Amino acid sequence: MKKPSLLIPLCVVMALLLGQQSQADDPVPATRMDLFITADQATNQLDAFATKHPEITLRVHTLDAIETLKDELSNGLPADPREAKRLALAQLKQLSKDERAELEHAATSIAIALQQGVMKYPAIVFDRAFVVYGIHDPYRALQHFQRWRLAEGP
């Protein structure tokens, strides 16, 4: 009588073990990216990135929006500080709903940057823990993050 071959069960066990090992070696994927930029650093890749990586929540924070608004509001104000203040307050009251939302988002973005310890920009923060400075391209930043996760191991 012929002995049953152990080759097939051994191959199945090896495949399962190798499959588990390769899954364990994969870095934990990012689930959130906070992109801190100025208005002139905005990129047209954001929509494409969000479509390609729906598993990652991408939040864009434009950190110079308040400065830009301040410059717009102070343009043409009189030299008299009291009159300038009165006119600036009147302009603030006349902001549209969208402009107010933009201003609120800008203020919140600065608070988030401070909370996450962002020291300069552009910067991309992954999962509120890992920062890539000097890059505003989400694809390149994700590559840096993935290389770091692979080097760190599980």
Characterise the protein shown here.
This protein has a four-stranded mixed beta sheet with strand order 2-1-3-4, with helices on both faces. The longest helix is centred in the N-terminal third of the chain and has 19 residues, at 7-25. Residues 1-26 have low confidence and may be disordered. The chain is elongated, with a radius of gyration of 25 Å. The protein is an alpha+beta fold and 154 residues long. It has a domain at 31-64 and 101-152: Glutaredoxin, CATH 3.40.30.10. The protein has helices at 7-25, 46-52, 65-74, 81-93, 97-115, 138-152; strands at 32-37, 57-62, 123-126, 130-133.
Short structural summary:
With 154 residues, this protein is α+β, with helices and mostly antiparallel strands.
Shape: elongated
Classify the fold: give the CATH topology of the domain at 31-64 and 101-152. Glutaredoxin
Q: Residue-averaged pLDDT, rounded?
A: 79
Low-confidence stretches: 1-26
Sum up the structure in keywords.
Glutaredoxin, 154 residues, 4-stranded mixed sheet, disordered N terminus
